[in-house]
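Target protein
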Amino acid sequence: MRKAGGAVGNKKRIMLIDNEEGLCRMMEAVLTDSGYEVKAYTRSFEAVEEFRPGEWDLVVSDIKMPGMDGIELLQRIKEKEPGVPVVMITAFATVETSIQALRRGAYDMLTKPFEPEELLYRVKNALSQRQLQTENRELKAELAGKFRFDAIIGASQGLKSVLERAEKIAGRDISILITGESGTGKELIAQAIHYNSPRKDKKFVAINCGALPESILESELFGCKKGAFTGATENRQGLLETANGGTLFLDEVGNIPMNLQKTLLRFLQEQEFHRIGDPTPIRVDVRLLTATNADIQGEIRSGAFREDLFYRLNVVNIHLPPLRERREDIPLLATHFVAQQNRKFGTTIHGLAPEAMEAAARYDWPGNIRQLRNVIEACMAMESEEWITLANLCQFIDVALGEEGGDALCGTGSCDEGEYAAALSRFEREYLKGLLGRHNWNIDGAAREAGMNMATVYRKIKKYGLKISR
């Protein structure tokens, strides 16, 4: 059986049904001349009998026909394949007839008499809708596969325990707080929970609460009414409304200002909120997932975070271990990132050389998985051999900062200072300039993206003599 849209030459296949033979042949000729593959029927029973799911991209049928009329034909076609679009043709376009056809699943109505251009226009729209539905299904299937729990890279017991816990609670509509150091994959776990929950067909919306000032964060979350503040030139929907029916993920939730904590708590209690400047309450159905790398308990003791909000968010806690506590996952992750870059850039690097892999496995990776990915990308950008060498890797991580014995892995503790090292230095300098420029010289943000600590970024700024350039 052919797949819809998969005919020879990728022609779209259209089933055409009309008992007026002259009109039927005319429509067949118009559609065929426009590049469609058309089969025409003048008897509705025969058309329904020969209809097979997956073989047709579109059905065009008259409503008023002897024997089985178009409404009954529509119903039988939809029973066989609910997703196929059907355009109905009628000479008597009453409101009642149109409503009946649309309720039975018709995509569009075409009233006789009509010009060929009108027929082609309606057919094109219906096929475009069909294509969007197909792409949407394929995208959802791809996302479901990408965010399966068993697709998350790692074999350590620590990660297995996390995934088992997350999988158990994914289907339960409760709030989850995901904790762990920066770069451990908290958002990936949140996405996996969403795409393995009953809300998987709705939106997953994420926002970094630490990246925005209080005024902007409030309008992003709750929306605003036109004229509520300077710059509010129109009514604006917030992320809570955007995520209605789905999941809202708040990263770095520990950075939410106290005023917004109160507003968020009220929403969790009442399941409603107000746009800024609008007294009308808005109700939404949203599952809230949150994450933090901060010591929330310490912030509660210091008065920087509301204890009652913490208990609302932390119905279940999932803690992600840092990469240094799951070293057996480092080779798997490194191999995965190498394969990703090979696919993206068409390269054929086999992976890390044995001594480089040993150094990577011994390193503490303070920036965790994010840092490992960035280092692999940088190494592959500079590598001209089949394997990522230890000399290459040592340009991007200080192995001596890892476990005892790290200096021995790099020989004398320093790599070749020749032309190769000079090229790597130029690359690092340009990389840092671009990174700092993207973050408007916000050192904290730049360090998080690069998977480095802030002290390392400051040291490299001084090393390369970089100046603020806005």
Remarks:
- Residues 116-146 form the longest helix (31 residues).
- Confidence is low (pLDDT under 50) at residues 1-9, 401-409, 411-418.
